[in-house]
Amino acid sequence: MLPEKFRKQIWLKSDFKSEPSLFNRLDEASRVSSRSLGLESEKLKVKKESIPKVVTMNIRIFNTVPFDAEQLGMIDIGVTTKFGANSSGDRFANGFVGYAIENAIDDAWAKNNIQDNTVNEVKLKLLEKCRIVYPSSNMIFNYDIDFREIGSSGNVFIYMRGTAAVGNNTMLTKALDEVEKEIEVMESCLKMKKENIEHLQDVKGRIPKSPKEIVKYLGV
C-alpha cells in the first residue's frame, strides 16, 4: 500500500507518534509532488504554445520561382524602421566633413549588424503573417526585398514579399516530429506524477493522524 520509499520491514510506535510522523511525511511528499506537477504542467503548456513558432521558424524561403509545390497566394509586409541618424539628404552638401560623418554612421551600423538584425526581424514578421494567412503553407517562393529611404529622416521603409506555397518541407516535418515527441514524453511524466499524487492521497487517508486515532490504531 505504501510507496516504496516509505516501506519498512518492522514498524515501531515512534513511526506514528514521533515527529515527523508517517502521516506528516506522506503529507509533505504529497505537497512536494503537487508543486512539481504544477511546474511540469506549466512547462507542457509552454511547449504546446511553441508549436506555431516552430512552424514559423521552419518555413523555407526561396528567391526562385515555385517548383514541386502548390502556390497559395502572395504574401507581403512593409515596415518602417530608423537605421541611424538623420541624413542630410545630400552626402556632399557640407563637404567632405559631412560625408565622412555620415559614412562613419553607416560603418558603425554595418559593424553592429543592424542591417542583418532588422532584415531578420522583418523576415520573421513575414513568416508569421504567412503562417496566419495561409496555415498550410510551409514554403515561400519569389522572395524579394526592397529598401526605400523616407526623405532625409533616417527612416527606411522595408518591403518584403513572396509567394506562399505548400510542398515537401522535410525540415519542418522533422522539427514538428521532435516537438510532438517531447510533448508525448512530458504528458507521460505528468500522468505518472498525477497517479503518484492520487496514490499518496489515498494512502494518507488511511493513516491515523490525531493522537486519538493513533491510540485506537495501535491500541496504546
Can you give me a brief rundown of this structure?
The protein has 220 residues and is α+β, with helices and mostly antiparallel strands.
Give short descriptive properties of this protein:
alpha+beta; 54% helix; 7 helices
Low-confidence stretches: 87-102
Task: Give the structural class.
Answer: alpha+beta
Instruction: Give the helix level as a range of percent.
Output: 40-55%
In quaternary terms, these chains amount to: single chain
What is the ordering of alpha helices and beta strands?
Answer: HHHEEHHEEHH
Average per-residue pLDDT, rounded, comes to 79
Which percent band covers the strand fraction?
15-25%
* Total of helices: 7
How is the largest sheet built, in terms of strand order? 1-3-4-2
The count of strands amounts to 4
How would you describe the overall organization of this protein?
It is a single chain. This protein has helices at residues 14-17, 22-49, 51-57, 95-111, 114-133, 170-204, 211-218, and strands at 60-61, 69-82, 139-149, 155-167. It is an alpha+beta fold. A hairpin with a 5-residue loop joins strand 3 (139-149) and strand 4 (155-167). The protein is elongated and about 85 Å long. Residues 87-102 have low confidence and may be disordered.
